[in-house]
Specification:
The structure is a homodimer. Chain A is of the alpha/beta class. The first copy, chain A, contains 8 helices and 6 strands; from the N terminus they run αααββαβαβαβαβα. In chain A, the strands form 2 sheets. Chain A has a 4-stranded parallel sheet with strand order 4-3-5-6. In chain A, strands 1-2 form a two-stranded antiparallel ribbon. In chain A, β5, α7 and β6 form a beta-alpha-beta unit. Chain A is globular. Chains A and B meet through α1, α2, α3, β2 and α5 of A and α1, α2, α3, β2 and α5 of B.
């Protein structure tokens, strides 16, 4: 009964992260109900993004140019290493960081076959080897793959004579200690600071 | 810092129902990370849907043909009136209904300026007037606008000598009475059946 064309559109939406069959169908109907200008706009936005967006040849963040705006303007002696381009947005929202980034585009995950050659580690080492970098801040996610990636990177970067740091772990600002998970609380206790 | 092109793509996703800024950005990044085949597929699915999908000239459901499959095959003496094409899918999933549908494409909502001429009521009356219909089952949503639409339709259809029914209200199968809302419980009590 349901049209092939609608099913195909819903199937396309299911490729997006977190979209199940019901949501996909809801999106498909929404597209069918859009006026032509809106749907043309949608199609054009996808085509333009696929055509124009590439990785910055230095940091790997998404950009429309050969080198991204941040790599062109910031203090190049401090490099914050993140897993994904979205993490750059989080840092930039905070606004307190004036260094540059290095986007790995993934985290080491040997079980899923993501090894050292599958994420942008070689590119990071090349940046370090070409000189001028004083500190590498590792800001991978505080989970298994993120920790693994962080400790691997620390192990290969430290011998190069560059300072390696990682983000502090601890209780979130505005959260309640009652609801903090045990691991986070443990880290917060270990890393306690004198007042 | 963030590319215009990515922002535009995220803005396009925000036109979808229930998509906020964070989800839209997540979808935009997912599209950028798709391989070319997948994104071409996505674009093509939208273009095809917009080009091929139209309303069935009888019932108003979405179809790729002049008349939808259901209108061509089913018992035309019983018509189930629903608000949206998605509701047809819910009925067809159930599989217990052998009549045809009439999709209103909306519900009366005078506060939002949706009046009698803005939804497919005239088309429904035309169908009734052209003869052969014995029963109209009203299956608009059990909320304010759905109830308003249902009572309006009942008021204009009954004088035409056609039986008008509505779906039963009551407690959901598998639910717990403890958690039923008061209105539903009230309706279930009013409409109680002898065993």
């Amino acid at each position: 009964m349901r049209s092939q064309t609608i099913s195909k559109l819903a199937a396309a939406f299911r490729k997006l992260p977190g979209v199940g069959p019901k949501t996909a169908m809801r999106y498909a109907y929404a597209v069918i109900e859009m006026d032509k200008e809106q749907s043309d706009n949608f199609v054009d936005a996808i085509i333009q993004a696929k055509a124009k967006i590439k990785m910055c040849s230095i940091c790997g963040d998404y950009t429309e140019n050969e080198i991204c705006e941040l790599c062109g303007a910031r203090d190049k002696s401090v490099v914050c290493v993140v897993s994904r381009p979205q993490d750059v947005i989080a840092f930039e929202k905070m606004g307190d960081y004036n260094g540059v980034y290095h986007v790995l585009h993934g985290e080491l995950d040997f079980q899923k076959g993501v090894g050292v050659d599958n994420i942008r580690i070689k590119e990071l080492l090349d940046r370090i080897n070409s000189g001028g970098i004083k500190e590498i801040i590792i800001a991978t996610n505080p989970d298994v793959t993120g920790e693994l990636t962080a400790s691997y990177l620390a192990g290969i970067i430290k011998p190069l004579g560059v300072k390696v740091t990682r983000l502090a772990y601890g209780i979130s600002i505005g959260s309640e200690i009652e609801y903090a998970d045990e691991l986070t609380l443990q880290r917060a206790l270990q890393d306690r600071k004198e007042l």
